[in-house]
Amino acid sequence: MYFVAEEARQIMAELGFRKIEDMVGRSDRLRMHKALSHWKAKGLDFSAIFHRPDMSDGRAIRCVVPQADRLADHLDREILQHAEGAIERKETTRIQMRIRNVNRTVGAILSNCIVKRYGPKGLPDGTLEVVLTGSAGQSFGAFLAPGVTLRLVGDCNDYLGKSLSGGRIVVQTPPEAPFIAHENIIAGNTLIYGGTSGEVFINGMAGERFGVRNSGVTAVVEGVGDHGCEYMTGGVVVVLGQTGCNFAAGMSGGLAYVLDEMQLFDTLCNLDMVELEPVWQEMDKAVLYELIERHLEWTGSERAKYVLRAWPDMVGRFVKVVPIDYRKALERMRAVEHRDTETTPATEEVFHG
Q1: Is residue 78 part of a domain?
Q2: % helix / strand / coil in the chain, to the nearest 5?
Q3: Which one of 43, 76, 171, 244 is least enclosed by Cβ atoms within 10 Å?
């Protein structure tokens, strides 16, 4: 960068300028480069580009007035005012406020303040809970840091949980809503895009490309549109309802559990990179039950209640989606562990003998 600055100073000296500000707007010192004499540029009028405005009235031709801070009224500023105890002293704090769809990327500035102070580990789980009522704008909970729970009672736009980084997002259908939650969309498209860690519980359906490029988030949702779990590389997704087509396209890691009541999921899933199997292993049953139970705990979901009440019958209707390469990697790891377990006693015996 020093060399760049030195060369820039040399060029400025040749032009007769001492400061960058003095060069702004000086189109009279520009000249046409030979590249602009290309036959494709012939006939083009560049006079508007090289035009110098009249400055006799004292007007400025460069920025002399600071631009307005478009983030000054960001909702996170208000949250930070009430979250001082949580951020400064790690006190358990609960905040309630309204939200509108013009409030975008709620949680990002808040997470930035937390990470700057405590690093990527953030706050202890459950330190700060923000309850928001209304309709959230795009990128709700983006980059959300550990220790923060955003609970939205209402609906939200696209990109919820984008690059989620350890926080928790809960979306609840309003208790007075007359519709059936698992049959209605309350969250937009491309949710938890590129999320690395954290939890998401959605008491309703989500749009298309749910969990795209998810690499570590655990999520429970009550239905998704087309292209669910697209390019997913890690994490766990549970779908307690219907899915669109092309599910698991490009999915190379992670796991998904889908409630397939109509026995049609194999026709909706992209099987190029994944395999389908029933949920028969006790470990899978335990993981799935716990996630649905947590979904009920955080959202009060009627769908979760329905599944848990009839668990012995319902568990057989779930389909486990496993990436083929991911399964092979797990099998290799288990083989290595098994081999080490078998050889270790023999090695110890020889050593002690």
Answers
A1: no
A2: 35, 20, 40
A3: 43
Residue 68 covered by a domain: no
pLDDT at 35: 63
pLDDT tens for residues 217-231?
999 999 999 999 999
Q: Tokens at residue 108, please? A: 């990002």
> Phi-psi region for residue 319, left (φ > 0), alpha (ψ -120 to 50) or beta?
beta
Q: Kind of pairing, strands 185-187 and 205-206? A: parallel
Tell me the three state secondary structure of residue 213: coil
Checking if the pLDDT of 349 tops 70, the result is no
Its pTM stands at 0.82
Amino acid, res. 239:
V
- Collect all residues with Cβ–Cβ distance below 8 Å to 220 and sequence separation of at least 6: 200, 201, 202, 237, 238, 240, 291, 292, 294, 295, 304
User: Is pLDDT of 303 > 60?
Assistant: yes
Q: In whole angstroms, what is the distance from residue 233 CA to residue 217 CA?
A: 10
231 within domain boundaries = yes
Domain interval for residue 9: 2-50
Instruction: Please write the tens of the pLDDT for every residue from 9-20.
Output: 999 999 999 999
Q: How crowded is residue 104: how many other Cβ atoms within 10 Å of its Cβ?
A: 16
Whole-angstrom distance, CA of residue 261 vs CA of residue 106: 36
Please give the distance of CA 225 from its chain centroid, rounded to a whole number: 17
Q: What is the band of 351 on the pLDDT scale with cuts at 50, 70, 90? A: very low
The rounded distance, in Å, linking the Cα atoms of 281 and 288 is 11
Domain count, the chain: 2
| Pair of tokens at residue 324 | 């083929």
